[in-house]
Amino acid sequence: MTKAKDGKKILEESVKSLLENLLVKAEIEITEDQENDALRVDISSDKETGLLIGKRGETLFSLQYILGLIYKQKTGEWKRIIINVGDYREKQEDYLRGLAQQTAQRAMETGEPQSLYNLTPAQRRVIHITLSEVPEVITESQGEGQDRCLVVKKK
After folding, report:
1. How distant, in Å, are the alpha carbons of 110, 118, 125, 134 from that of 106?
2. Which of 13, 33, 68, 141 would give a disulfide with 38, using CB separation of 3.0 to 4.6 Å?
């Protein structure tokens, strides 16, 4: 068995064990995400989707972190683990792209900087990338810690 297959098998066993301990019945699929140099875990559950995602994705990100630690403990190497439950990530990215476009439009129409608060680093990244294709605006993150926000300005 190759190292990659060993890692996928270890991750699969870890995910199944974790879900079993949470008393969650779900189907899982593990694939290699070459673009992000990660292992992607897609989880589908008829009844437990909300439980696994949690408020604003907090449970999903916590599970992702825990599985990353378990993977490191069992394999001795760090590997990025990306968990997706019920297409949450795709829906979230679509929402963030729409928010980015609306915010850019508002910044261009008013000429005033527009601030977006309470975003995770990953959410800010999606907005930065989306608006990097809009030549009329620039984006920047300002502040530190909990006070960090993303500002969209007209060029």
Report:
1. 6, 19, 20, 13
2. 33
Q: Domain of 75: which CATH number?
A: 3.30.300.20
Q: Please, are residues 126 and 100 in contact by the beta-carbon 8 Å criterion? A: yes
What is residue 97's predicted lDDT score, i.e. its pLDDT?
A: 96
Question: 50 and 108 share a domain?
Answer: no
Q: How many structural domains does the chain have?
A: 2
Residue 29 falls within a domain, yes or no? yes
Q: What is the 3-state secondary structure (H, E, C) of 43-64?
A: EECCCCHHHHHCHHHHHHHHHH
Query: What are the structure tokens assigned to 123, written together?
Result: 């959410």
> Minimal CA–CA distance to 24: which of 69, 71, 83?
83
| Residues of the domain holding 109 | 98-154
Separation between Cα atoms, residue 90 and residue 125, nearest integer Å? 15
pLDDT tens-place string over residues 65-79: 999 999 999 999 999
